[in-house]
Structure formats: structure tokens, C-alpha cells
């Protein structure tokens, strides 16, 4: 008989990166517990995408936590600040993006740590990427390593000698490499959602940084973004 | 003219320890931004106490964030598990308490980090204590130091070279020393709330670990807990 699969918590936004991360965790044999956040996003398409991706790739359960980042405000993702459009690579790479949410990955990973402790998991997957999002402080390898060290001092599992691993399998990949890996694993990118500023029916704007990054990556792979045909 | 006071975020539960911590931050000259959490506590007396303490000691503002620890459950503070009563010191000190909430301080400090980033603060105060609560992994000095290292890699302030300090001024104090320090600073402990299992009007049960720890400390100082006369 097979051994039961080891549980893992996988942070799942419904975007291209987190969908690929979930597929990687599944391919590594983990029993995946997906975790999404309702954090006052201006648009709901992201949460719908997370549900569709979780069903398509396969998870043990999918929990959604409501968090309250609007208490502190200050981001185009939660406030009524204009999302930048049609920026070139240099503009995107220059400094911390306007769409940065204060301490977001720290809050998300903290919830993942609580969830992991409750289900006796010591593996957490997060789809951060240091290549295309170099402007986000909490997407860098040093940050992930520091979170892991902290996590191992924070929890019952750590105290009992069971080390928690924070897996960031995309951290050194380009967007093209991420998509190539996902396609190998059968990810249906038509289900994912990346746009910072979709219309009311959830269709991508095709002009924000997130839309442009994925369009260009699919183009370089000789493909059309499957989301645009969906 | 005086320089404007430096801003700090102070985690404020409304308990004896966080009230003392707020008084210490004020005495050190910080302009205090208090942060409390509504995390599905079974009783509301704690949040009422936080408001009363913030007003009495003096804060620039007091924000309350609603968080969703019940998504993951597993604690006498949020679930309908019986709170242990009338335990002696040895039973209290033995292992991780039933009232432990998974990753709670990590989640609380992550929100404090977001709040600090929004108000341009690089000082965060938390009333954790390693002496009376040795069973909580996330109350230990090593944990606080690891969180601080992670925080400095997580945020815009860190990237720009402004180090964040996590202050835990009570961490090495006994309950008696905490109360003595608070009384010197004029803290009105009648406003605070510690009980894990109050009655409907918010009065303490006088039998849970939190009640017993503070009663014994006041007794050893030759006092009656002012909460019992309130």
C-alpha cells in the first residue's frame, strides 16, 4: 500500500504563479491544503479563479480566510488608486510597485503557518518570484529564508523538533520558465487570473503590469495567453 | 520646541501585560498607535478593556483589526474547549497550554508590521513574557529576535535601510515585576482584563490560569487585584 501523502499548505491567489506552485506541490506528492485570502480586493475575479484552479489541479481542501488589510490601506490593490498601465520593463522594474501591499506575504505566510500547525503539516508552498517582481521586498530569497527561521521558533512543531519548510519553487524562475513548467504539469492557465484592474465581468484589462508580464511571456513561447481565448 | 514624538505600534489586548507595555512605550516618549484584534474571542470583555486602557494611558489612535483565526480553530480561546481551572504552578508550567492559539503572535506581529509600514514607524511593542508563559513557543526571546530579522527583510523600510525594532520590554520580567513597573507608571489595572472564561457581564472567573497568575502576583505585593474591587 502507498503511504498516505504528506500534507502541505499551498497559498493560492488564483494567479498564474500560485497555480503553477500548486501543480508543483501536487507533482511532488503532497496532499495539498489550499489557502486563499479575501483581503478586500477591489475585484472578485481572483477569488473565483482560486476556486477553479484548486478544483482543476486537485486539493484535499480549500480554505478562504477573510483578512482586513484595508484597516491599514495604502495600495492600489485595495484602495482607489489608479493602477499603472502600459509600462515598459524599465518602469516596472524601478523600485517598489504601487501595487505593493504592506507586509502582505508576511501576513499570508503567518496564516499559512497557523493552518499548517492545525493540520500537522510542516511544508508551506508560496509562489513568490524574485525575477519579475524584484521590487517587492517580501519576494526575495533572503526574506523567505528568514521567515522559515522565524517559523521554526514560533510553533509547537518547531519546539518539538519538526522543522517547517517554506517552499518557494518559482523564486528563481522567469515568467517564461514558470509557464513552461506549468504547461508540462498540465496547468490550464485559462482558469487563472492575474489582472490588477479587470472589468466588471472579470476580464483582464490587458494593460496593467500583471497582464503585460503574462502576455509577453506567452508571446515569447509562441503562444497566445489562453485567458484571452477563454 | 519639542521634536515630534517618534511613532510606535503597540499591540494591545487589554490584558495586564499589554497595558504595562503601552505605559512603558509612552514613558519612553513614543507616540503610540495601539492595535487590537477581534479574532473571534468567545468573550468581548478583552476588547472593551483594550479601549479603556488605550484611553486611560493615551494613544494617538487605536485600531482594531478583525482576523479570522476560527478558520483554523484549535484553541480554548476561540473554540468551545473547557478552560482549565485551579491548576497549580507545575500544571501551568507543563508544556504548551491548551489556550495556545496557533501562530498567534506571528499573525499579530505581521499586522503590526503592516500598520508600522503605513504610518512610517519602525518600532513595534509587544507584551510577551517568557517567564510566566514559558510554554508558548512564540513568547521566547529567540522567537522575537527571529521575527525582527525577518521583518527587516520584509518591508520597504527595511529595504531602504530603516531597521525595525520589535520591543518586548516584559520578556524577562516576572508577573510581580511587571505589575510593580506598571504601578510606578500609573497603570490602572482595574481597567485591564485577563480572564480566559469571564461571566456574561465580563467579570473574571478567578480560577483560570490567567486569573490565578495575576491574583497571586498582587497578593505577593501585599495587594488585592484592583479588578476584584472594580
**Order of strands in the sheet with most strands of chain A:** 3-2-1-4-5
Number of separate helices of chain A:
9
Largest interface: A-B, 44 and 44 residues
Percent range for helical residues of chain A? 25-40%
Runs of chain A with pLDDT <50, length 5+? none
The oligomeric state is homodimer
Mean pLDDT of chain A: 86
**Relevant CATH superfamily of chain A:** HUPs
Q: What share of residues are in beta strands of chain A?
A: 5-15%
Q: How many structural domains are formed by the residues of chain A?
A: 1
CATH class of chain A: Alpha Beta
Largest sheet of chain A: 5 strands, parallel
Q: So what's the overall shape of chain A?
A: globular
Question: How many extended strands of chain A?
Answer: 5
Find the structural class of chain A using helix and strand composition: alpha/beta
CATH architecture term of chain A: 3-Layer(aba) Sandwich
In CATH, the topology of chain A is named Rossmann fold
Amino acid at each position: 500500500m502507498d503511504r498516505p501523502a504528506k500534507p502541505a499548505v499551498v497559498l493560492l491567489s488564483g494567479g498564474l504563479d500560485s497555480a503553477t506552485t500548486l501543480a508543483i506541490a501536487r507533482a511532488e506528492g503532497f496532499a495539498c491544503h489550499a489557502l486563499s485570502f479575501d483581503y478586500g480586493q477591489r475585484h472578485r475575479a481572483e477569488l473565483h479563479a482560486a476556486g477553479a484552479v484548486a478544483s482543476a489541479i486537485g486539493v484535499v481542501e480549500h480554505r478562504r480566510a477573510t483578512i482586513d488589510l484595508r484597516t491599514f490601506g495604502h495600495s492600489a490593490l485595495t484602495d482607489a488608486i489608479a493602477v499603472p498601465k502600459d509600462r515598459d520593463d524599465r518602469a516596472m522594474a524601478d523600485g517598489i510597485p504601487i501595487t505593493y501591499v504592506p507586509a502582505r506575504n508576511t501576513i499570508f505566510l503567518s496564516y499559512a503557518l497557523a493552518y499548517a500547525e492545525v493540520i500537522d503539516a510542516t511544508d508551506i508552498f508560496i509562489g513568490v518570484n524574485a525575477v519579475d517582481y524584484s521590487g517587492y521586498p517580501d519576494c526575495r530569497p533572503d526574506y523567505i529564508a528568514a521567515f522559515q527561521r522565524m517559523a521554526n521558533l514560533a510553533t509547537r512543531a518547531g519546539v518539538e523538533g519538526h522543522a517547517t519548510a517554506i517552499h518557494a519553487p518559482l523564486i528563481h524562475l522567469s515568467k517564461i520558465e514558470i509557464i513552461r513548467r506549468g504547461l508540462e504539469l498540465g496547468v490550464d492557465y485559462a482558469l487563472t487570473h492575474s489582472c490588477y484592474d479587470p472589468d466588471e465581468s472579470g476580464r483582464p484589462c490587458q494593460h496593467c503590469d500583471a497582464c503585460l508580464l503574462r502576455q509577453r511571456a506567452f508571446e515569447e513561447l509562441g503562444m497566445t495567453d489562453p485567458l484571452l481565448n477563454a
